[in-house]
Amino acid sequence: NLSELESLNYISNYDDIITTYGPNTTSADDTYTNHGQSKERELDSFKEWGYLTNHNELLNAFGSNRTTGLEHYISFGMAGSRGADGFKDVSYLNNDIDLPIYFINNSLFSNIAKHDLQDSRLII
Question: What Å distances lie between residue 44 and 22, 48, 124, CA to CA?
Fold first, then answer.
């Protein structure tokens, strides 16, 4: 069985799953187990940190709550064409000299958005 966060990530990855199940994690879990896994569908390719940092009002409302951010994207964001692609990891690195070099060395660019939220910075 998938955790709630894994199920929400799975749903967020695929427009057809969002359209069919919305934020129903039980149905998403069943669908992944019975179909998605054998089709090698990814569990976690949606950039929820990017989604939160791209939309100031969501960041203000949800803070760093990934679960609520995913639920919002599934319920409203996809239909409103609100994506997570605007966050530019490399640009953020180039413009913020105080970030630890390990972000670059370990290719942990998704952690940059997380750092951004936890450090109370906002990238628009």
Answer: 16, 9, 23
